């Protein structure tokens, strides 16, 4: 009688200490079901937040339309398009715009800065500088 009790007690003690446990034949199936439930919960959570973000974006767009505000991406796209339009055909940097009448035609008389300033001075001062 003592021998039977000690064998049973030793077997239970081994389980408690992390020894050989009885394998559940359905353990793999239960684990797969648990993983599937976790995946499903994650998908539902993502769908919920995607829906909330879409609602927020609709509200944001309404505010942008009301006040004439552009999205950051739209501003960057417009700036990039303007740069590309200016740099079309150029392999390096964008060409600088030359105002009409500058550089192409030769001027008969080139004025210095001093002459330009003198032109706007009062009469007596103009006479002093011209001499």
TrEMBL record:
InterPro entries: Synaphin
Keywords assigned by UniProt, alphabetized: Coiled coil, Cytoplasm, Exocytosis, Neurotransmitter transport, Synapse, Transport
GO BP: regulation of neurotransmitter secretion; synaptic vesicle exocytosis
Region (Disordered): 9-50, 78-111
Skewed-composition ranges (Low complexity): 79-88
Biased composition (Basic and acidic residues): 12-50
Compartment(s) where it occurs, according to its Swiss-Prot or TrEMBL record: Cytoplasm, Cytosol; Perikaryon; Presynapse
Gene3D superfamilies on file: Single Helix bin
Gene Ontology CC terms, in alphabetical order: cytosol; perikaryon; SNARE complex; terminal bouton
Pfam short name (any one): Synaphin
GO MF terms held by the record: syntaxin binding
Family the UniProt entry places it in: Belongs to the complexin/synaphin family.
Assembly and interaction partners: Binds to the SNARE core complex containing SNAP25, VAMP2 and STX1A.
Protein name: Complexin-1
